[in-house]
Amino acid sequence: MNTQGRVLIVDDDPEFGLVAQSLIEVEGLSAQLVESGEQALAVCSERACDVVLLDLMLGETSGLDVLREIRRQADDLPVIVVTAHGSMESAAAAVRAEAFDYIGKPFRADELMAAVRRALEWRKQQRNGNRESQIKSAKATSIVSIVGCSPAMVAVYRAIARVAATDSTVLISGESGTGKELVARALHDNSPRAKHPFIPVNCGALTETLLESELFGHVRGSFTGALANHRGIFETANGGTIFLDEISETSPAFQVKLLRVLQEQEIRPVGAAESRRVDARIVAATNRRVQDLFATEEFRRDLLYRLSVINIELPPLRERREDIPLLVEHFLQRLNRKLGKNVTVPAETQDWLCQFDWLGNVRELENAVERAITLNLGGKLLPEDFLQFTPTPLARKAISAPVPEGVAGSVAATSTNGGMFWVCELPNTLEEVERRHLVAMLRYTKGNKLRAAELLGIGRYSLYRKAVRLGINLNQED
């Protein structure tokens, strides 16, 4: 085994620990598995490892406490935090405690090994006398709650935690409703600029003249209606962060002026003779893919290069369906408090919601949950609560079936072509449709449960819950 590549795995889940150990040893490195924080600290105190792979949840012990103690004992020992409960809070806390990296469970083998090798290289540099730390503290003063623990969202948390403490410009890309402003606020709140203003600007809602005046300010008499000097957002946000939403909607002429501001760190108010120094971090956002912006002549490439020093791409909700139940519960708790209700959502309804693409992403899901809670009278959210008075084509993908005579409690809904379809109230006909569909999918995948879950657009554990609820023996379906 490679004595210069000793990895300590700290996890109270022996199954995961053995998998990680096997992956690491296949790469020719040494791997030792322990199940408690006390054992981990003993190994670290003896300098018997080069990298630590640390789970955040160690029974009743917090992995963050173990991380802080490792940092106190050996500040040159890189620690990679691994968690199945990824969140913005835990990512920021891990970075504040000087974790080297942060990855979520389940992870790809290449992702894990890439992190381990980066950590080993950093450790080697430390031993060779390069004391310039690559571990940065986010120094968060407050945390914006971004919900989700899917691998795609863990990657977003990790990017925020790494970038927040810098002054690099960031371009956030993602479809409408994915939470670009939340990410921008998280970058600000976890930065040294957190005590200064965070000012969002919707570039698509203002004309070129108004946008220039709002951002850079103007002097009295510079144009019709300029009755007094106006201090622009760049000066107001001095020391803080400016969030330029929908930056791709700006005109080429404005893009030239913004590029100059980014290059010179100076603004010239409309009608002014002299420039003024400003200190504001720029975070921009677009609902278009960055690759598409580079491919078009509508947006200046030199400005795009300047804005996208760091690019954080937010996944659409349909690519992280496993986060939908978490989001629903998050919205449910907040709206119950707001509306003075105590509405719950059964697992069956959560699974039903996971079937939709949610083209409006998190915003559409939030609106749907608010509408359903407002209309609900029974205390439990059922599919029909989401199908009433909906302005979106949510119903067109609902599981539908001919209604047998005598079936009670069915709900009629109008389809997009003006016709009618029927959605049967759980747990009668709809359960039978679900059962047949799930069994057919298992047969199609020849018993491959992971593939069946992917084709159904749900998580593996949701598949297991469905099987138990519907009385399906997954082993018999292999």
Strand content: 5-15%
In terms of structural class, how would the helical and strand content be classed? alpha/beta
Spatial shape: globular
Radius of gyration: 26 Å
End-to-end gap: 39 Å
Count up the helices. 19
Strand order of the largest sheet: 2-1-3-6-7
Could you give the count of β-strands?
16
Major sheet characteristics: 5 strands, parallel
Low-confidence parts: 130-144, 398-428
- Mean pLDDT level: 79
Residue share in helix? 40-55%
Task: Identify the notable features of this structure and list them briefly.
globular, 14% strand, 478 residues, alpha/beta, 42% helix, 5-stranded parallel β-sheet, 16 strands, 19 helices
Describe the structure in your own words.
The chain has helices spanning 14-26, 37-45, 63-73, 88-96, 109-127, 151-163, 180-189, 208-216, 233-236, 252-264, 290-295, 301-307, 324-339, 347-353, 361-375, 383-387, 429-444, 449-456, 460-470; strands spanning 2-10, 29-34, 51-55, 57-58, 61-62, 79-83, 101-104, 170-173, 198-202, 241-245, 266-267, 276-277, 281-286, 310-313, 411-414, 420-423. The protein has 19 helices and 16 strands. By secondary structure, the protein is α/β, with parallel strands linked by helices. The radius of gyration is 26 Å and the shape is globular. Strand 6, helix 4 (88-96) and strand 7 (101-104) form a beta-alpha-beta unit. Strands 2-1-3-6-7 form a five-stranded parallel beta sheet, sandwiched between helices. A five-stranded parallel beta sheet has the order 9-10-13-8-14, with helices on one face.
